Amino acid sequence: MTDWFARPIFCVTDVEASIRFYVDQLGFTNPWRFDEGGKVFVAQVERQGCAIILSSQWPDKAGKAMLFISLNVEPPTIEAATAALDNLRAELEAKGAPVKEGGGATASSSSTTPTATSSSSTIRTRPQPARSNIATNDLIGGCMASVTGFGGTFLRANDPKALYQWYEQHLGLVNAHGAFTYPAPTRYPHVVFAFFKQEDGYFPPSQKAMINLQVDDLDAVLDRLTAAGIAVDPKRETYDFGKFGWLTDPEGNRVELWQPLGD
Predict the structure, then answer these.
(1) Chain-centroid distance, C-alpha 70
(2) Choosing a second label site near 211 at 20 to 30 A (CA), which of 61, 109, 119, 144?
(3) At which of 86, 113, 144 does a domain end?
(4) Taking the C-alpha atoms of 44, 47, 50 and 54 in order, what is their torsion angle to the nearest 10 degrees?
(5) What is the pLDDT of residues 12-35, one digit of tens each?
(6) Residue 11 class from Cβ within 10 Å (0-12 exposed, 13-18 middle, 19+ buried)?
(7) pTM value?
(8) What whole-number distance in Å separates Cα of residue 222 and Cα of residue 245?
(9) Measured between alpha carbons, how far is 227 from 25 in angstroms, rounded to an integer?
């Protein structure tokens, strides 16, 4: 089974100004953004199931739009993901839609909309969220050539539904299709996967794993959580690769927050 998950990408010249318009005047929220060197390049705004990606990565396309479609494949296997994309590519080509090769398929149209004089749809396969993200160019001879990234974190909870609601309310995470997911442009390029000795005190030895969430303003996030009565560790640390702080969620999990400061 393959489900489609679509979001429009609006090409703009100033992402921050666009965010202010959608948030201040249209009542949207801004769950994530990607910035570099103090400038926001990509962000998502959403309201009641309507999600829009704002991007300034293509200045020559300002005022135009694209449709980004993810194919959520079930069962979540390399073979199923590859077959879903190949089948869709064949279907589009059979109907006369020009398709570009790559990690996904890009189909173009010439329809005119109020926000775009031409449009295109970028389609990529992915298994259900929080599992391996598979693209066609990750495959060599039908087999995965290497590990290409960190796919997700899985934690046990006494009450998963309540814990999802807590993270949504206090940290602004968005639960889509039964998991918290982050499109690639929102993440700082470096993702850490590290091992600690059982007795190491960096996080409680009784806690088998600790999640690290990237934030864009550590002090503002921790101050807001403290004001809301959340258990926030008063300790904050700064290194040349980022600022760190910690909180404890309702089930006693210590969570690390990281504000990257650059490469």
Answers:
(1) 12
(2) 144
(3) 144
(4) -20
(5) 999 999 999 999 999 999 888 887
(6) buried
(7) 0.43
(8) 8
(9) 26
